[in-house]
Amino acid sequence: MAHKIDVDKEKCIGCGACVSICPDSFEMKDGKAFATKAEVEKLTCEKDAESGCPVDAIKVN
Prior knowledge:
Blueprint: E1 3-7, H1 17-21, E2 26-29, E3 32-35, E4 39-40, H2 46-52, E5 58-60
């Protein structure tokens, strides 16, 4: 089962924590984070990035 990765652009403050924690799945663009993959088959660091987001802008389902 694939895990969906979503970044709420309205909540994101562009701190870059997710990119630091999980650079394979997140990048910064125009001062905001975005998921480089909409879904992943196997979670690696994505849940850590979700937990590390200071404004809860990342959801991994």
